[in-house]
Amino acid sequence: MKSRLTFFFATLLTAMALAYCKGPAKLSYRNISNFYKPDLQLAGLSYALFNLNDSITNLYVRIPMKGLRYLPDNGAGKSRFRLSYQLFDGFEKGVLIDSASFTGMDSLTGRAIFMDSVPIRALAGNDYVLSIELLDLNAGNNYGAFLSLQKRQIYNVHDFLLLDESGIPLMRNFLYRNEKVRIRSNRLSDSLHFKYFTEKYLPGTPPFGFPDNIAINAADSVFGVKFRDGVTSSGTVPGEGRYLLYGGGSPVMVIHRFYDGFPDIGSTGQMRESLRYISTDAEYREMSQLPPRAAIDEFWIKLTGHSERALSQIRRYYGRVEEANRFFSLSREGWKSDRGMIYMVFGPPNLVYRNTLSEQWTYGEAGNPLSLRFLFNLETLPDNQSEYFLIRSETYRTPWHMAVSNWRR
């Protein structure tokens, strides 16, 4: 893929560790709380994976150059950055399979997007974890991410790649109205099928309540898709909902159509719905009887008692909604997930540790018995998607009500 920038990947700084060797630290020991802090993330930075064959996986990277720092250099502004990756056999063992590091430079104005791909040696028959870091060498800012790479099954999610109409990786799994896309496959001529589900998930229940049961609903419709030379023809998805691509009898890829504008707030109706976490049952029922705009204005002004204070809280709260959508959208809109719920009410956690099956958040200091901790288990849903679900406890009732009351001042 050719970049539109005057850009180059330069010297390979770190040799590929093809022989099995120990990495610098197990991934499960790394505090990844910065992943969930908007001011420490590069907006628009995104990645995608595609298994070219049984031994090579392409890592696609999209870098918004305007987010990097440009410094004077011979009369022109230049950005300098380094992209590094480490491929591990999992979170716990810490066995490093492959690693490399590349430097890049751009001499344009910083308003363009850089996109390219990097081949990674990853053999079929195993699943991996990819640790990626982008370092802005001019600013000293480091942006990290963990990606799960699946190559264990006959059909894996990374055997398929969502493309825009021109064939460029879309770098997301949700679409907008009338957006034309293609699907790339490493199987050149398979005929697969989609199942379409229109039902929408409800917001999560409070952390001291009972979790919602995951219902197994029948598909609203089923339609086939044909790959020719490894790619489908371009097309759109007809309505909001979930589209599950089936291969070998199981879902292998999911495409969402949440609403136009996602992950940003798309309408006043969604603004009203997302107030579920900080409103009482009576307030929420009352809001549902009013037009969305009137319900939102009345709720915030009644809570704060002042229009300027209300505006400040509105910006803060709905900023959290949009951040939750960007950070936590897996099987549903991020703000409706358990992680999104805790993030919206309590804010970014101080400590985050992830392993193969769970993610632990801490608000406070490590080892402090007064710190608040949440454990989210990664579970497989009936449609073969995965989602993090909170281990609920009655001990969360008091801190939850205290945090909600802070929003209601």
UniProtKB/TrEMBL annotation:
Write down the Pfam families for this protein, in alphabetical order: GWxTD_dom (PF20094)
Give the originating organism: Lentimicrobium saccharophilum
Signal peptide start-end: 1-19
Which controlled-vocabulary keywords does the entry list? Signal
Would you say which domain of life the source belongs to? Bacteria
Q: Please tell me whether the keyword Lipid biosynthesis is annotated for this protein.
A: no
- InterPro entries per UniProt: GWxTD_dom
Residue ranges constituting the GWxTD domain according to the UniProt record: 255-409
Q: What is this protein called?
A: GWxTD domain-containing protein
Does this UniProt record's set of keywords contain Transport? no
